[in-house]
Please model this.
Amino acid sequence: ALPDDIPIWCNSVDAEGIVALPFPGAIAKREKILELQKSDQDAASSRVVYVGDSSTDLLAIIQADVGILLGGSQSATSLANQYGVTVKPLSEFEDDENSQSVVWTANNWQEIGSFLENR
Model:
């Protein structure tokens, strides 16, 4: 379970299995992250965490204060490496590191939930 005070933005799936994408495309996702960061700039302790699972999430993952790649997409990892972005396991996260220069990887949602609960 995630803490109640964490706002979550995600795709939705209806009863028929149809997925709705509230922010379609890589640029729209990054723009939403920028919007959230600007609205929270007065709150020193708030961070924007973005969890994605593919290369179309990479711009948002990099823009977020903490960007997490779920499942280790080889195409996203390769693309991040091509542009000089470091890729590390979420288990190695350190608060003093410049998180925007790192794509953090997680194997499952339980790992992400544990990470968020400990922050």
Observations:
- DSSP finds four helices and six strands in the chain.
- The first helix runs from residue 26 to 39.
- The longest strand covers residues 66-70.
- The mean pLDDT is 83.
